[in-house]
Amino acid sequence: MANEAELRLHRCCFTGHRPEKLNRSEVEIKKDLEGAILQAIDDGFVTFITGMARGVDIWAGEIILQLRKNNPNLHLIAASPYDGFESRWSADWQRRYKDILDQADLVRFVCNGYSKSCFQIRNEWMVNRSARVIAVYNGEPGGTRNTIEYAERNKVECFKI
Question: Which of 34, 65, 90, 156 is the most exposed place for a label (fewest CB within 10 A)?
């Protein structure tokens, strides 16, 4: 049985902006995300952690689940900041969120409920369990930048797309 340090070497997580902050289309970003995920798989990553936010996180989770159909060695961890995180989203985003939770290999609600720091706590939880971060980043301040900076401070590789 592999220990946590060994498992971490094969884990990759995602960070990225909400759709309204991105200056590229969903189709373009998903194409780049899939390329980065396939590169990660080629590099030996088999477990992927999504933070379950609208946009990049949900898209990445959907891509992993699609790829897993042909590669049963792939695993998806859904790391939601708290139970009920999606409750104010549109019906479509809620459905996509629930579909990922239903199909993930592991679901973790990182915090007991909402707090101002729950998103950063979730982001650090993911980085602390990963050897690579795939980041969709537009250069603006916010949670994505904070996650990249946290990863870099902790010597976790960042793959920016």
Answer: 90
Q: Which residues contact 48 (CB under 8 A, 6 or more apart)?
A: 11, 12, 13, 14, 37, 40, 60, 61, 64, 74, 75, 76, 77
**Best CA proximity match to 121, nearest among 131, 112, 110:** 110
Which conformational region is residue 73 in: left (phi greater than 0), alpha (psi within -120 to 50 degrees), or beta? Answer: alpha
Give dist(CA 138, CA 160) in Å, integer: 10
What is the C-alpha to C-alpha distance for residues 159 and 43, in angstroms, rounded to an integer? 12
Phi, psi of 81 (to 5 degrees): -60, -35
| Residue linked to tokens 């690579």 | 132
Q: pTM of the predicted model, to two decimals?
A: 0.96
- Whether 88 shows a pLDDT value over 90: the answer reads yes
CA–CA dist 124, 118 (Å, integer): 10
Contact status, residue 148 vs residue 160, Cβ threshold 8 Å:
yes
Beta-bridge mates of residue 132: 12, 157
Predicted pLDDT of residue 31:
97
